[in-house]
Amino acid sequence: MLWTEVRDLFPDQFVLLEELKSHYEDRKLHIEEVAVIKPIPDAQEAMKELFAAKNERFVYHTSNENIIIEVRSKPMIRRKPSHES
Question: First and final CA of the chain: distance in angstroms?
Fold first, then answer.
């Protein structure tokens, strides 16, 4: 389903989505097609669903005109081995 269709069906609310089609451009993920898993009634529930989401699932608000997600690489964490002082 296109994001414009999702926005028409679920105006001004959070939805749990699964990414179906996307592309990268300038370190940003542009999502073109999604599957709607379910609408989410409030922000607190949206936060719970976001933290539980795995793989290509994510939560987004339909007030956004497009789905564009900035991709950040995880910084490496360096620390001393525990046996050294």
Answer: 56
Closest residue by Cα to residue 57 from 35, 39, 42: 35
- Compute the C-alpha angle 30/59/1, nearest 5°: 55
CB-based contact 76:36 (threshold 8 Å): no
Check pLDDT > 80 for residue 81.
no
Q: What angle do CA 63, 67, 53 make, to 5 degrees?
A: 95
Q: Which residue has the tokens 């414009």?
A: 4
d(CA 69, CA 53): 15
**Contact 58/38 with Cβ under 8 angstroms?**
no
Q: In this predicted model, what pLDDT tens digit does every residue of 2-44 receive, in sequence order?
A: 999 999 999 999 999 999 999 999 889 999 999 999 999 999 9
Q: Could you give phi then psi for residue 27, rounded to 5 degrees? A: 60, 25
